[in-house]
Amino acid sequence: MIAYFLLLVVVALVQVVNTHESIPVSCNSPIYCEGPLLKTVQLARLYDDSKTFVDMPTSKPVDQVLEGFKALGDHPGKEEIRQFVSSHFAPVASEMKPYNITTSGPLAWSDKVDDAKYRGWAEVLHQSWARLAFQFDTSSLCDGCVSSTLPVKRPFVVPGGRFREFYYWDSYFVIEGLLQSGLNSLALDMIENFLDFVDTYGFMPNGARIYYLNRSQPPFLTEMVNLYFQKTKDVDFLKKALPVLDKEYKFWRTNTTVTIRHNDRKYKLNRFNVENHSPRPESYVEDYNLVHHGPQALTPKQQSDLFSDLATGAESGWDYSSRWTKHHHQDGGDLLRSLNTRHVVPVELNALLWSMETYLADWYETYGADLTTDKQRRRKTSYYRKQAHQRLDAMDTLLWNDTSAEFFDYNLTSHAQTLQFSAAALVPFWLGAVPARARTPAALHRVFDTTHALLRQNPGILTSTAVPTSMQWDFPNGWPPLQYVAIHAMRNVDAWLDKDRYEGLAKVLAQRMAASAYCSWYLTGGSLPDAGLTKLANTADNGHMFEKFDVRSLTDSGFGGECKFKYRHEKKGFMQLFCMGGGGLDTVQVGFGWTNGVALWILNNYNDLVAPDCTSNNIYPVPDLN
Ligand SMILES: *[C@@H]1O[C@H](CO)[C@@H](O)[C@H](O)[C@H]1NC(C)=O
Ligand SMILES: *[C@@H]1O[C@H](CO)[C@@H](O)[C@H](O)[C@H]1NC(C)=O
Ligand SMILES: *[C@@H]1O[C@H](CO)[C@@H](O)[C@H](O)[C@H]1NC(C)=O
Ligand SMILES: *[C@@H]1O[C@H](CO)[C@@H](O)[C@H](O)[C@H]1NC(C)=O
Ligand SMILES: *[C@@H]1O[C@H](CO)[C@@H](O)[C@H](O)[C@H]1NC(C)=O
């Protein structure tokens, strides 16, 4: 009898656990995920951006929405569909409201900034978090109404533009900026939202939408926890985070590991890896057309591979890039049809996982005592140490190229390195995921002397050197997070070399990044009356921060036809404002979370930078190396 009772208790416990674990981890809404409603509405092209529809909450309960859709019959016309949407859906973002940042006084360190214009601009950036901070609030939605947002308890900061929800890897750079702004509790809120997500879904989704549940993004959560921990030394927080980071680690390990045979040995590394059989709801029309309307018809297997490789490209955060395509030229077909994302082992993903393994080992060793038994703690510490060790060994053998003195991605189709430069190759030097062979002064000199030479030719760190592919994660774009990574990498390398060889170069890069962001803000109407920066005539807006920049010098003009804020300037000294190339979206994203974060970090770390006069030549020459 007692045994029977115990058995019941055990069964009940198992059921509780199962219910928790069985929260659907793929898109399964009859409205926002693959199904006849989504397909009909998206292919009617009511909006320029496929993302608009899937971000609209319903204005009627779900069953009424579905009935309304059924009533449309088999082949509704565009006007009927428009009518259906307007009578059953509410405007985008009705399920969130602005969050009042109550603790935000003036920026604490602005006195340290020498230049009056940069001082004023830093204050503008600091205040701009208020425009990007939101909280989830469904009080304006009817009973039974739904939205595609994945609810969170705490406030959050979004990138801006069409990105109305928070994103995974973007948020690292946002959190960096919030910490620069002294908004520690908002940074903590964001991290805790992510920890809740990992707890609920078993991994960190790409962003806070149901249609992002099929994939993650570069694993930056451990880096966020570290950033916050370094700033606050909050050990209790770290202890709370540790078991959740374990869980995230398990996801990457289980879902994305590949075993590579090389010279009779087996190595384990990771790649981005999403299984998907339908157009991404937020890019429905683009994916649908790519797969169904190309120059050649695809077999069902090819279609499904392409859907998976598209979603995997989005998981990489580099959507899209020549790193993932078999072809690098637009040769009549669409480049994206040659995506091979799941067969590329990316260098930054493995550097991030090495960093995760290393922090988890360190943190369990140092702070794990109250979390678990001594034996468990030692087991976990040595498990993570071993994973980190094996990964570095695999990176050394498969990703590092000693002849080129460079990290490359590894191509699982050709079983060879890609031999193409991308800024991702600098991530190991930022995070410290560098095998002994690559850490010698000679190797470090070769890696960063090349970077030095590249910066003589281009004002910023190029995303990749592939010929213009019109994809946004390629030449000629430079992205703020990649500049941040490069600056950190150079500072680390100086520390390893124990001299100031690259300090000047890091500073020039910081200067150029800051100048580009500042001038694009000024040229779109930004002003600082107190610092003598008057608003430019003919600017309707009040200054925008952009998500990415063009690092080309001026001579090329084949790009950016649709750019609203197109701006070309006769100067080479800093990155220029970029407008959209093809392959991405055709509107400029303004806001912008990671650019603000990186700019604040630069201004706080390089106090003596001087704001350029954005209307005349300002060149920041690359210094000689020490
Ligand atoms: C998510 O994955 C499942 C199974 O892998 C797939 O059937 C579904 O179409 C995917 N959903 C989205 C939104 O991509
Ligand atoms: C946020 O601030 C605005 C303007 O100061 C105010 O009208 C609003 O009530 C505040 N909202 C909350 C939730 O405190
Ligand atoms: C991870 O893999 C498991 C097991 O194959 C699968 O059920 C789950 O959907 C995958 N998660 C994601 C986000 O792809
Ligand atoms: C990988 O190797 C294959 C086979 O050699 C090649 O066609 C492809 O361009 C390479 N790169 C990618 C990203 O697939
Ligand atoms: C390393 O790079 C060189 C080009 O610099 C290339 O010839 C060589 O094949 C690469 N090594 C490996 C192991 O891929």
UniProtKB/TrEMBL annotation:
It is an enzyme of class 3 (hydrolase). Residues 1-19 form the signal peptide. GO terms for biological process: trehalose catabolic process. Keywords: Glycosidase, Hydrolase, Signal. InterPro entries: 6-hairpin_glycosidase_sf, 6hp_glycosidase-like_sf, Glyco_hydro_37, Glyco_hydro_37_CS. GO terms for molecular function: alpha,alpha-trehalase activity. It holds the Pfam family Trehalase. Gene3D superfamilies: 1.50.10.10. It catalyses: alpha,alpha-trehalose + H2O = alpha-D-glucose + beta-D-glucose. Its EC number is 3.2.1.28. PANTHER family: TREHALASE (PTHR23403). Belongs to the glycosyl hydrolase 37 family. This is Trehalase. It comes from Absidia glauca.
